[in-house]
Design a protein that fits this description.
globular; 4 strands; alpha+beta; two-stranded antiparallel ribbon
C-alpha cells in the first residue's frame, strides 16, 4: 500500500515543465501514496516577494487569487484571504503552468484519492510503472469521452479564472453581492 506523501512547489527558479514532470515521475515511481503540488506563493520575508533583482533574474510573473476556501462574510461585508502566486518564469511559461496543473489534476484523480490502488498494484505486477500509466492518461486526455474532457477543460478554465492582475481588482469583484454569492456557490 502506498503510504508515503510528498509535496512539491512550482514554479521554482530554473524549473521547466520537463524538469517538473521528471521530478514528479521519480516521485510516482517511489510508490508515494499522495503528491500534493503547491503553486509558489510570494511571501514577504523571502526573495520571492522582497528581492526585486531575484524576481527580475528569473522573470517571475505573478497573479492574485483567493486562498482556497478561505473567505467569509462579516456583517454583510466579504472578507477574502488573498495570495500572490507565481504563474510563469523565464523557464516555465503560463501555458506550461496550465499543463503542470492539469497533470497534477490527473494525479489527484488517479493516485491521490486511492481509488485505483488495486489497479496500480496490478499494473506494477505486470511491469507497468505508475508514472507510465499517468503519462499515458495525460497524453491521451483529448481521446477520453466528451464528459471526461469537459471536466478537464473546466478545471483548466477555473485555473485561469481564479487569477487576477491585482488584489484590488479581485477584492472589488467579489465585494459585489452577486459575485460573492457565486463564489459561495462554487
Amino acid at each position: 500500500k502506498r503510504t508515503r506523501n510528498a509535496e512539491v512547489i512550482a514554479p521554482l527558479p530554473g524549473e521547466t515543465l520537463e524538469s517538473f514532470f521528471k521530478g514528479v515521475t521519480d516521485l510516482l515511481d517511489t510508490k508515494v501514496g499522495r503528491i500534493q503540488c503547491h503553486t509558489l506563493t510570494m511571501i514577504y520575508g523571502t526573495d520571492y516577494k522582497d528581492n526585486e533583482q531575484f524576481l527580475n533574474e528569473h522573470e517571475y510573473v505573478t497573479k492574485f487569487r483567493i486562498v482556497v476556501r478561505n473567505f467569509t462574510s462579516i456583517e454583510g461585508k466579504p472578507i477574502l484571504d488573498v495570495e500572490e502566486v507565481a504563474i510563469a518564469t523565464k523557464d516555465m511559461s503560463f501555458s506550461d503552468y496550465l499543463k503542470m496543473r492539469k497533470y497534477m489534476f490527473v494525479i489527484e484523480l488517479c493516485v491521490n484519492c486511492g481509488v485505483f490502488e488495486p489497479l496500480l498494484r496490478y499494473l506494477e505486477s505486470h511491469g507497468i510503472k505508475c508514472s507510465e500509466w499517468i503519462q499515458f492518461i495525460y497524453k491521451n486526455l483529448d481521446k477520453l469521452p466528451e464528459t471526461i474532457r469537459e471536466i478537464f477543460n473546466s478545471f483548466e478554465m477555473e485555473t485561469q479564472d481564479e487569477l487576477w492582475d491585482s488584489e484590488k481588482a479581485l477584492v472589488e469583484h467579489y465585494s459585489k453581492p452577486e459575485n460573492y454569492r457565486l463564489l459561495i456557490e462554487g
